[in-house]
Write the structure tokens for this entry.
Amino acid sequence: MVNEPTPARPRRGLRPTRRGRLALFIGLVLVLAVAAAVLVPLLTRGPEVERARSLVIPEGWRASQVYAAVDKALAIEPGTAEKAAGTADLPLPAEAKGNPEGYLFPATYPVTSATTARGLLRYMVDTALQRFGADHIAEGARRNGVSVYETVVIASIVQAEADSVADMGKVARVIHNRLRLGMPLQMDSTINYALNRSTLHTTKGDTRIDSPYNSYERKGLPPTPIGNPGEQAMTAAIDPTPGTWLYFVTVAPGDTRFTSSYTEQQRNVEEFNRNHRSGSGG
């Protein structure tokens, strides 16, 4: 005889204990909190911050070179920065007569899509005023019997003439010695500035040009800086190396000869000319 199976007892649904209910509630809260933490930044994230680009202004660049670099960096019409310089109300010393040459401080500047030519040029001038307005600069200028602006002019010539940083102090001394003796500076760099060029060769014809920057025919300093000097050139201008030199010439790269003898200078110049004729003058 086959026995009829006993009906299975209905299974009770699983019911968490009080401790289980508490753990479940805490887990749910944590999940919601994590979700909210992920969601909030997605809802509140604004536009990404623009990363600034860099504009490098090298030591010794002329204002014309700085203007061209600003136009290019800001992707604006050529000539815009130069026009802005005339309308930017730059805080220049009175001696500058509105010309920022010498005060467009060489440094690395941040540039973004919001940067304007006027704002960038003012930033450069403000930086120069901060550096050149230091007490030791003013004190050095007084010690040398010149103004701070004239010191910037001297530093710009030092920057253009010195073959190396090590020579800057000696070049500055030559300038100060010639000014003290009432000699014309006879610096090729001032002729180059007048002719808007850069070259190592100056002809006799060049030295006869009619320009306030012709330091062969005109005594004293040129009316403005001939470029934008850096701090090392300014340091040389206020604290030149002691010496009696009146002449110098770089006969070859790394070989600048300083002397107080005109005869010796002539020999050095002839060596310079030989080197350049033979192509070994760098």
Notes: Residues 16 and 23 are 10 Å apart (CA to CA). The chain has ten helices and four strands.
